[in-house]
Amino acid sequence: MADAGAAANGGRNKYAVLDRSEELDGRRRPPAPESERRRTERFVYACAVFASLNAILLGYDVGVMSGCIIYIQKDLHITEFQQEILVGCLSVVSLLGSLSGGRTSDVIGRKWTMGLGAIVFQLGAAIMTFAPSFTVLTIGRLLAGVGIGFGAMVSGVYIAEISPAGARGTLTSLPEICINLGILLGYVSNYAFSGLSEHINWRIMLGVGILPSVFIGFALFVIPESPRWLVMEKRVSEARAVLLQISESEAEVEERLAEIEEAAGLMKSMKSEEKEVWRELLNPSPAVRRMLYAGCGIQLFQQITGIDATVYYSPTIFKDAGIKSDQELLAATVAVGFTKTVFILVAIFLIDKVGRKPLLYVSTIGMTVCLFLLGVALTLQKHDAGLMSPRIGIDLAIFAVCGNVAFFSIGIGPICWVLSSEVFPLRLRAQGSALGQVGGRVSSGLVSMSFLSMARAISVAGMFFVFAAISVVSVLFVYFCVPETKGKTLEEIEMMFESGDEWRGGEIELEDTQHLIPSTKKSVPLG
């Protein structure tokens, strides 16, 4: 369809999908010298890694709180309801950071918004470390949540805007790697400091979380500003200077700059863009509605399938499975964190080779099986049906939890960040990503703040049967609402959503999960 449109206009349609074979064999643009290519790759990867440090804060908080809450309850004598509030409030309040972060990043820039988020988080973490009561602890946690919301929202946008199309999937999934690394570090911190006094250990666990935000401060003097934001601010010469740092040749710089200026220029030529950004998002055109379904829906399903409940309350799950001592509970959570981190690294190598959609199918189907298996294991343990020994029940529960986080990390975990940062056009990208973050954070908070109460009503096993049912729905969501964006520039993705026919025709179908198995290379029609 794109080719037909180009022919109708007497040549290449300026919005047509580029011929990737031309790019790959060098006919469109001469290849850059190997040394220059490697230098550029190293710099872009360094920028992406530094921008992803914000995600370590979120991951560390999620991991460390699962163990801290055991000792906070003993030290401050908080109730079960207060535990739920303390665990879940960070996710809910981080939406304030996500919402304000979109507008803030459009005003002061992407990288300085990340710096602002780090400062707010440091303040909250310091208050939590020295909190004498539940009230003060909650205040610190609320501030930390706002800071995390700022960083989590803008880091994905920044990475998407500096990344070349061929590596964008890998680079924009780096925040998910850092979340997993942060979770693992949180679990290790729990285990390492668990032997200290109950009045001291949880404070040290929380205080260690300040360290990543210090590195973020140093990173701000290394990474450049987003070239797309600079173009929006009419600072074209600065944008060109940044593109020279992150592109392989001057020809590529001019090509990318022209695409960015064209996307930014559409804001003045299209009638729909005369509306305020938020008004356009809340009263969307069909194309924007499709973007919202994909970008916000993936954030929603990432959370309502219960990943935060699994991570935050893994000690509770393992205790219900039959593990008794605190040390053994925390040791089991380290295994979960290690599994989560290993499989996110696997996803990074596959995401730009296999594509987004096949990995999402593998992820959501695998999670459904593991969540159901965990519910079965906990049910058999609870009712002592005599069908298996307690040791086997514990091992099966640990296997199911590790399997769940593994399938999460290989698909919906990192791809959620990728899709939510690449499906929105330049004019909507910051606020659209923020809106997706809001949905994800609210869902995370609701799950975290209700898990213990709901588990008391229907049992821990019952909760995971519910999550398994929701995971089935997520498979259908991937099939009907998520297009394949692998290898497309951000501007091409925008035009794919503008054309409903192209959007449907460009999808990768369920059968294409066979690409996970080595086979001959096949081309996928885009229209």
TrEMBL record:
It is a multi-pass membrane protein. SUPFAM superfamilies: MFS general substrate transporter. Residues 47-486 form the Major facilitator superfamily (MFS) profile domain. GO terms for cellular component: membrane. It is found in: Membrane. GO terms for molecular function: symporter activity. Residues 1-35 are annotated as: Disordered. The chain crosses the membrane at residues 43-73, 85-102, 114-133, 139-159, 171-188, 200-223, 329-352, 358-380, 392-420, 457-482. Gene3D superfamilies: MFS general substrate transporter like domains. It comes from Panicum miliaceum (Proso millet). This is Polyol transporter 4 isoform X2. Residues 17-28 have a biased composition (Basic and acidic residues). The keyword Nucleotide-binding does not apply. The keyword Phosphoprotein does not apply. Its main location: membrane. Residues 1-11 have a biased composition (Low complexity). Keywords: Membrane, Sugar transport, Symport, Transmembrane, Transmembrane helix, Transport. Belongs to the major facilitator superfamily. Sugar transporter (TC 2.A.1.1) family. It holds the Pfam family Sugar_tr.
